[in-house]
Design brief:
The protein has helices at 11-15, 19-37, 46-66, 78-91, 97-113. It is mainly alpha-helical and 114 residues long.
């Protein structure tokens, strides 16, 4: 596993935050976590990487739906629930608790400005 403690929300994203931007940051975070913790799944031909991206995108879209929201039209109420779900998925990758704590704090910045 690589050092993933440096992940954070860009300050410019916080000034322009809306549910769609929050959704995109959550997806980017999850992709980054998977690439850092399971790099072997992202090695290969560009078409294989695109297929993996599509698989992850479907997983995130499904999470929105399971939680009662819409990926294509997210709202402020669903974002905290999706963040919790994604953080649980990342934790299950074996990311250390101190790193997860940092990630939770970063995600709270999103919730705070929504």
């Amino acid at each position: 596993m690589t050092d993933f403690t440096e992940w954070g929300v860009d300050e410019t994203d916080l000034t322009e935050m809306n549910p769609e931007r929050a959704r995109d940051i959550i997806l980017d975070y999850y992709l980054t976590a998977l690439k850092d913790n399971r790099p072997e799944e992202f090695q290969g031909l560009p078409t294989e990487e695109q297929n993996k991206f599509e698989e992850i995108l479907t997983e995130v879209k499904t999470l929105f739906e399971v939680l009662g929201g819409s990926y294509s039209e997210p709202d402020r109420k669903i974002i905290p629930k999706v963040i919790d779900g994604i953080l649980d998925k990342v934790k299950s990758l074996g990311v250390p608790e101190e790193v997860m704590h940092h990630h939770r704090l970063e995600m709270q910045k999103i919730i705070k400005v929504l």
